[in-house]
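User: I'm writing a tutorial on reading structure tokens. Could you give me a worked example: one chain, its sequence, then its tokens, then a sentence or two explaining what the tokens reveal?
Assistant: Sure. Here is the example chain.
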Amino acid sequence: MSRPLPRGGTLLLAAVAGTAIANNYALQPALTTVAADLDVPLSVIGLVPTAALAGCTAGFALLLPLTDHLAPNRLVAAQLTALAAALALAATAPGPAVLLAAYLLTGAAASVAAQASTIAGRHAPPGRGGTGVAVVAAGMSAGILLSRLAGGALTDALGWRRMLLVFAVLALLGATAAATLLPRHRPPARGGYLATLKALPPLLLKHRRLRLTVATGALWYLAFNVVWIALALALAEPPRSLGPTAIGLYSLAGLLGFAVLPLTGRLTDRYGPRTVITGAVMTAAAGTGLLATGLDTPWVTALGLAVLDAGCFAAQAANQSRVIALDPARSGSLSSVYLVVYFTVGALGAAAAAPLLDTLGWPATALTALAALLLAAGLARR
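And here are its predicted structure tokens:
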């Protein structure tokens, strides 16, 4: 049986997750500044977010299973130290090649956010696993929502290189706290690390519930990306012709999703993941249906996005607690499989958004996302 986290341990993991995952997004408002400073085309520096996402997906595949092999204090501290080193490399990059390489490493190290969620669920008191996962998910959501704001403000005040060093210092502070406060015992030995990696693909064949859970989460993340990317494109086109700042303000709708996460954890522990996931996905479907009515009324658009975000955020927290509960001793490996497929399908949704919008228009694109959400709700009930 896993030892419980010390007092404040779950909040520490939430802070680690939020400050780590923020590094995938904090540089985005400064991309034009970085391009001018390095004297390279914006199209080249625009690959930085892609490098971060690719690194993060690789981290889910290669580093998340380490939670089944290493003591939490050593694992989290080491990965946060690596994150600080990658950010320092990015801050001193003389050109785009080094910057992109640094962001591949930054994204991989930022996958510690998923490790934090797995550790919180595994070491939660009996019957409180959903709450632990939801608290860490709230930290991740806060990091994603506030990262661009913090990155932009720090860049204006200090410059983009010093901004990255501020985030590096935060990572080192988190590493120190993790090394001191998180559990020091290793999980029971279950084979070597390479054997664990080889065993990842067969897990989908072995666990029917894992297949259903993966398919459910992948469908709503596909819908989420289709809606957000197509919406940003539709708002930028005539007759609306909104600028980046105005479009970016719609991201504040995600605050509702952040607000519902603590309640999601309590409901998951009380009623079980299936009930919460089904209700959350249907909530997201309702928001998408509202968006399908058109984008000409800003408050309706904001409300639809808020409901979509709240539903998807809540479903993700409950779904991750379900993955961990399948086999707590192998929760790192199971979460690795889940997140790799989840982000891969989400990337397909992101790639499909623009062609769908060009071919079908906004209402039909939103209805396509709605169909994916309804299918996810049906799978959740199984």
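What the tokens reveal: Residues 3 and 123 are 6 Å apart (CA to CA). The chain has a mean pLDDT of 86.
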